[in-house]
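step: validate -> pass
step: tokenize input -> pass
step: predict -> running
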Amino acid sequence: MIKKNDVVTLSYTLKNSAGVELGKADAKDAMNYLHGAGNIVPGLEEVIEGLKVGDKKDVTVPPEKGYGDMNPELKLKIPRSNFPADADIQPDMQFSSDMDGKENVFTVEKVEGDQIFVNGNHPFAGETLHFNVKILGVRDATAEELSHGHVHDGSHHH
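step: predict -> pass
step: emit ->
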């Protein structure tokens, strides 16, 4: 049964309330995460707790237990002069900025003349998320994984 500090392997399909697929991982490219370390949205982690290998579950996660509500203060209009002169700013480009001591990723929404419109909200902010998950594996985390707070599955480098 899944508990804090387990490494969980799962497949999933994620859709929004309109039924549009937002993401998926099937058995061959399954997702691994460290349970209880905040590696996945809280609303999904809460429901997965106690499941076991082979279990399937449909989980609806409201914005407050997912990526939060849309924060209008993170939708900004920035003068072009704030960017490097040689930067080719295009819609969907991303950059990070330090806000209130934490790194925030911004996505360029549009460019109008010398104004760059950016959004620092997560792309799924304000969305009710609909997960269909299947638990494929559960194991104890290694001491190194626990100290780093995430799974070491070859996809992360320090």
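step: describe -> The chain has two helices and nine strands.
step: cleanup -> pass
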